[in-house]
Amino acid sequence: MKKSGLIVATALSILALPSHGQSVADQLKVADCNFKILYEGEEVQVQRQMITLRAVSESEEVKIENNYFKIHSAAYRAYHLEFSYSGDLIDYNDVGYVEFYNRQNKRIHIADLEKDSRRISESEKRMPQKVRYFAISLEDTPLLLLDEVSYINIQD
Length: 156
Description:
Strand content: over 45%
Radius of gyration: 21 Å
Number of domains: 1
Oligomer: single chain
Helix content: 10-25%
Structural class: mainly beta
Strand order of the largest sheet: 1-4-5-9-8
């Protein structure tokens, strides 16, 4: 009886391992990408990048009479460009927009990141580290446009 329980437990633990040795990021990504990424015109030392589909939630409080608040909440999924990099910190609090350029160095899209619906997240607010992580929401960015993009410039 104990032997069959051990066999079942071993089989379950093997099934729970990532398939074919893939990392968690590899299992969750939607697509790999290879954009040149700049921050205010200076090249960022990108180590890895991918497009992911992430959960996003928003809430807004609206004050109504007698100190009561009405809360509007929404949850949805949005595509994000995520990348890891080394070097100087990209201060996500200062980022205002992201420019997308094609191979002819023509700007083909601007994503305004100051809108409430835009999300930027980065690892520095979590803990200091040598490798940093950054994610930019691609809401309102046509996904087919990404096939034309050669490089991306993050601007304050």
